[in-house]
Amino acid sequence: DVTVPFTNGYAPIRGSANGTNYTYVLDGGKYMIDNLNAGGSATTLYVGAPSLLYVTGDIQLSTIVFAPGARLHLYMAAPSIAIAPVVLGATPPQFTIWGLPTCTSLTLNGGTKLVGVIYAPETNLKAAGGASIYGAIMCGSFTCSGTFDFHFDLATANATVINLLTLLSWDEL
């Protein structure tokens, strides 16, 4: 099971980077928030330095932007999460989504362009039309509807969480 490595942290705050305003800016360290949204679909997140973010509730992100060399470990605790982020400026090893045991359903909505690793062994992962993932996935089960693109990135092959994985079965419909 995934466990969050901390139980308190700073709340992410609004800010700007390189002349662009963001809903949340992470400048390194540990962050914790109940809901990661700004009440709309235009919630943006900038990761400027290696950061850990623990979200206990809803996540609603449209864009996640990474500075060169920045990393994000995102810990999700809500039972059911639907996201459609577009991840910019990252390579798969820079972004890891950790699904805690309480997170049993994760939906990647249409238009999702996720660059990273999803490690959520208790989670049923669903991908809707037009979603794409570049990286690696470890989840309890996976289903997709419509067009879905998956590119396993060899840079994630040495990731500690992915080393022990084997594809047990698949059904192509």
What are the SSEs and their pairings?
Blueprint: E1 13-17, E2 20-26, E3 29-33, E4 44-47, E5 51-55, E6 63-66, E7 72-76, E8 80-83, E9 86-88, E10 95-99, E11 105-108, E12 113-127, E13 131-144, E14 148-152
Parallel strand pairs: 2-4, 3-5, 4-6, 5-7, 6-9, 7-10, 8-11, 10-12, 11-12, 12-13, 13-14
Antiparallel strand pairs: 1-2
Write up what this structure looks like.
This protein has about 170 residues and is mostly beta strands. The chain has one domain. Helix content is about 0%, strand content about 50%. It has no helices and 14 strands. Strands 3, 5, 7, 8, 10, 11, 12, 13 and 14 form a nine-stranded parallel sheet that branches. It has a five-stranded mixed sheet with strand order 1-2-4-6-9, with no helix packed on it. Strand 1 and strand 2 form a beta hairpin. The model has no long low-confidence stretch (mean pLDDT about 85).
Going by helix content, strand content and strand pairing, the class is mainly beta
Distinct helical segment count: 0
Tell me the strand percentage band.
over 45%
Total domains: 1
Largest sheet: 9 strands, parallel
Average pLDDT figure: 86
Strand elements, count? 14
Could you tell me the radius of gyration in angstroms? 15 Å
Q: What would the keywords be for this entry?
A:
173 residues; mainly beta; 5-stranded mixed sheet
How do you describe this structure in short?
This protein is mainly β. 0% of the residues lie in helices and 49% in strands.
